[in-house]
Amino acid sequence: MPSNTSPLLLVTGATGKVGQQFCETLLQSPAHQNWRIRALTHNRQLPAHARVESVRGSIADRAVVDKAMQGVTHVLHLATCKETPEDVMDVTVKGLFWLLEAARQSADFQQFVLIGGDAAMGHFVYPHPLPVTEEQTHSAYKGCYALSKVLEEVMLEQFQIQYDLNSCCLRAPWIMEKDDFKYQLSFGDDVFGGPRWRDLVGAEKADQYVKEGRVPVMLDPAGEPVQRNFVHVSDLVSAILAALDHPKAEKQTFNICCDEPVDYRKVAEHLQQTRGIPSVDVGTPYYSTWLDNAKAKFLLGWRPQYDYRRLIDAAYDYQRPASDPRKIWYPG
Q1: E strand or H helix at 40, and its extent?
Q2: What whole-number distance in Å separates Cα of residue 308 and Cα of residue 70?
Q3: Residue-wise pLDDT tens for the chain (332 aa)?
């Protein structure tokens, strides 16, 4: 391993939800005070900092990636896109391939950390009769996003086999910050992500539920409340920090999520009890999934700090400043 006393971490997707908080946290961490960050950016830039530099360009461009990888010791790959078929292969397949190719050929390289997603395991689209562990077979649902998450994990695994690459995958479900959790319960057009509740109940009912201030209770095809996996961005960031240079992270995949999935019935009960918010049952084609995070806790010593109550309270208590309007940078 190179004797580099000042690690240089390349972060792709550094200006996104996870990337911004991760960079801020690492720069403030006493244990990482000698680490430097290089951000590979496309549309936005990180705030200026003495230990932060940027390379701007497309991750699909090998020349850009090779430039960004010069002298890099660690890679945190966050860049992704959702249901955009015209971009997804360039970003999540070609881009990852160029990063891994540069890493395996670099004398400075030490570790690659990929942030994966539970879409690779079918999310809540397929029935999961048992907790989903890291050993379960991949099962992409329809669309290009889930397929891309499978391809990312498989490519990383094959580079581990082919080139003995020191790397790991942190597989995260839906990532929450600020007031995200509140808006994923909206019957309005301001809903964050999916499902779009108004499409499930119809515009007339949805408009009525908005007026009444109701939140949905997602039901599975059998009429049981759905349990769905989430992770708060700060818990994911702490998992990334735990995985960096951890000897037990090498060539491993970890589920990074709340200790238990969020039960939509319990969400409704908590909101009714604490804020007087009414709910309504909504039948859906989706199924409960229990993502098992025991491996990360056992090997990395990581512990999530958020459960469903804290997710709810943090989102509903959050006061968004006028300078930070809600903006979705990619569909999904």
Answers
A1: strand 36-41
A2: 42
A3: 444 579 999 999 998 999 999 999 999 999 999 999 999 987 777 888 899 999 999 999 999 999 999 999 999 999 988 778 888 888 889 999 999 999 999 999 999 999 999 999 999 999 999 999 999 999 999 999 999 999 999 999 999 999 999 999 999 999 999 999 999 999 999 999 889 999 999 999 999 999 999 999 999 999 999 999 999 999 999 999 999 999 999 999 999 999 999 999 999 999 999 999 999 999 999 999 999 999 999 999 999 999 999 999 999 999 999 888 887 655 44
Structure tokens at 308: 């469903």
Rounded to a whole number of angstroms, the CA Rg of the chain reads 20
* Domain over 8-175+231-258+290-305 is classified CATH 3.40.50.620: no
Beta bridge partners of 280: 216
Q: Which residues pair with 114 in a beta bridge?
A: 77, 169
> At a CB cut-off of 8 Å and minimum separation 6, what does 55 contact?
38, 39, 40, 41, 64, 67, 68
Q: Which amino acid is at 2?
A: P
Identify the CA nearest to 40 among candidates 71, 18, 9.
9
**Which residues does 166 contact at the CB level (< 8 Å), separation at least 6?**
110, 111, 112, 250, 251
Three-state DSSP at 231 gives strand
Cβ distance 308 to 315 under 8 Å?
Answer: no
Enter the pTM of the model: 0.95
State both tokens at 317.
Answer: 């208590």
